[in-house]
Design goal:
With 56 residues, the chain is of the alpha+beta class. Helix content is 14%, strand content 21%.
């Protein structure tokens, strides 16, 4: 935990390797196919309107 712009998301993204990143389909703030940090670092993801539609 920490304040906004404290680097929490970039620190988490540096640690993960083999994950499926999923975000809500209505989250279109920076990119439809990426999770983007405040400092514009992108990590690919799936944007889904319904989690049950995700298949590994």
């Amino acid at each position: 935990m920490g304040p906004m712009f404290a680097g929490k998301t970039p620190a988490l993204l540096r640690r993960i390797k083999n994950v499926a990143m999923i975000k809500p389909g209505k989250d279109t703030r920076y990119a439809n196919d990426s999770v983007v940090t405040h400092d514009r670092v992108k990590f690919p993801c799936w944007a889904l309107s319904d989690l049950s539609s995700f298949r590994v």
